[in-house]
Specification:
Elements (H helix, E strand, L loop, with lengths): L38 H16 L1 H9 L9 H15 L10 E2 L20 E2 L4
Antiparallel strand pairs: 1-2
Length: 126
């Protein structure tokens, strides 16, 4: 209910932005590849994944799990990730590189907002 549009499974339930104009928060997942992966491999992965996401059978299964797929080109997904990072990331240290938070004892922890928020990728890790 926090996305831009109403959820098809509950069409009568308003979105948060119906009450708080401009609000949008969506959970998302994506597939990444190592730096230096040839473009033809990236394009093929993108094509195959997107073909699956628009397949009616897979789309129906995702809808049963209350999931709406977002289909992007690699460039569109990169722009989306950058926008989401800017929107939700720690703005206190914009020049730091993203570093993954490692799970378990001794793992790096984000320190955004005085340590209260622990994002999986923190721009303000020390």
């Amino acid at each position: 209910m926090a996305g831009k549009t109403r959820f098809a499974g509950l069409p009568d339930v308003p979105t948060v932005s119906d009450v708080v104009p401009g609000f949008e928060a969506s959970a998302w997942q994506g597939v990444g590849v190592p730096r230096g992966t040839p473009n033809e491999i990236i394009e093929r992965l993108n094509r195959e994944i997107n073909d699956g996401l628009v397949n009616p059978v897979i789309k129906a299964r995702l809808a049963d799990a209350a999931t709406t797929p977002m289909v992007f080109t690699p460039a569109e997904f990169g722009a989306y990730m950058a926008a989401e990072t800017e929107k939700w990331g720690c703005r206190g240290a914009p020049d730091r590189r993203l570093r993954p938070r490692l799970p378990g004892p001794g793992g790096r922890r984000g320190t955004c907002n005085g340590g209260r928020y622990r994002p999986p990728f923190a721009r303000c890790d020390k």
